[in-house]
Design goal:
66 residues; 0% strand; mainly alpha
Length: 66
C-alpha cells in the first residue's frame, strides 16, 4: 500500500482525532474513507416533514405575493 503525507491545520487534526475516537475507526485512513463515503450518500429528503402544519398554518396577507 502506497502512503502519502498531507498537511492540515492543528485544529483540523484535533477534529479528525476526535472523530476517529467517536467513530471507533482503526486508522485515519479508515476514518477519511468513511467520511467520504458518507458525504456521497443521498441526503434524507425533508419533503413532507411538516405535512401536519397545513391545518394550523395561516399566512398573513402581508406575507403573500401578488
Amino acid at each position: 500500500m502506497e502512503t502519502t503525507t498531507i498537511a492540515v491545520r492543528t485544529e483540523t487534526l484535533k477534529l479528525l482525532q476526535k472523530a476517529k475516537n467517536e467513530m471507533q475507526a482503526g486508522s485515519m485512513n479508515t476514518l477519511i474513507e468513511t467520511l467520504l463515503q458518507d458525504s456521497k450518500k443521498q441526503k434524507k429528503s425533508m419533503f413532507g416533514a411538516l405535512k401536519h402544519i397545513h391545518k394550523e398554518f395561516r399566512r398573513e396577507e402581508i406575507d403573500r405575493f401578488g
